[in-house]
Amino acid sequence: MKLPAYEHTAQYYETDQMGIIHHSNYIRWFEEARVSLMEQIGVGYDRMEAEGIMSPVLAVACEYKSMTRFGDTVDIHTEITKYDGIRLELSYEITDHTTRELRCRGSSRHCFMEKEGGNLVSLKKSRPTFHTVFMKAIEEA
C-alpha cells in the first residue's frame, strides 16, 4: 500500500534566527504525517480515541541532512516499519518537494493504551478491527 506523501509548506513562525526551520519542527511534521497516514489507512486518532484507545509516543529520533527554509514545501514519506499489536514503529523521510533533496530521516515508536486507566492494550485481542488494518498496512508496505 503505497500511500501519497504528506505535503507541508514551511511557515515563517517555524524558522529560527538563521532563517531556517528550527529542528524541533521536524518532530511536529512527523506527527502531522503520522496522523495523515493513520487516517488514510482507516484508523485515525479521532476514531481510536472515540473507542477509548490512545497511542502515546515512546521514542522519536531525527537525523538532519539539509536545511529547510521558510516557504519551502516538503514531502514527508511515512511508513509503518513494525507492528506487534501492542507497539507501532514508523519511519519518516522528509524531502524537498521540488528538488527531492533529502532534508531529514527519522523514526518514532508508540504503544496502545486504554484512555481510561492507562493500561497497555493488545489491539489483536481488544480491537481486532484495528489490528487487521495495521497488519494489512505493514504487509502492503
TrEMBL record:
Q: Name one GO molecular function term.
A: fatty acyl-CoA hydrolase activity
Keywords from UniProt, A to Z, are: Hydrolase
Q: Which domain of life is it from?
A: Bacteria
Pfam families linked: 4HBT_2 (PF13279)
Q: Do you know which Gene3D superfamilies this protein is assigned to?
A: Hotdog Thioesterase
What is the similarity comment for this entry? Belongs to the 4-hydroxybenzoyl-CoA thioesterase family.
Q: What is this protein called in UniProt?
A: Acyl-CoA thioester hydrolase
Recorded source organism is Lactonifactor longoviformis DSM 17459
